[in-house]
Specification:
Blueprint lengths: L2 H10 L2 H12 L13 H20 L4 H16 L1
Helix pairs in contact: 1-3, 2-3, 3-4
């Protein structure tokens, strides 16, 4: 998971576009947008993180840094 990649997706893509990219990866199709990552798993991780963060920003009315912090805490908790 690379924060700069997630930030770029949040700043440049809509939730709808990201959801379409998620579906494309799951269906093993070519992506319509550029998503950095070493493989499809890392690309999917970046897309899912960006979708989660955008949802938080819109529904909880928080800024990017707050939503990112919440996401990384959620990930750390799930790993522990």
């Amino acid at each position: 998971m690379k924060i700069p990649v997630i930030k770029k997706l949040v700043e440049t893509q809509s939730i709808e576009t990201l959801l379409a990219a998620e579906a494309a990866i799951l269906e093993e199709q070519e992506l319509a947008i550029e998503v950095e990552g070493e493989d499809e798993g890392e690309q999917l991780t970046h897309i899912l993180a960006a979708v989660w963060i955008l949802n938080q920003m819109h529904h909880q009315h928080v800024d990017f840094k707050t939503a990112l912090r919440e996401y990384t805490q959620k990930v750390r908790t799930s790993i522990s």
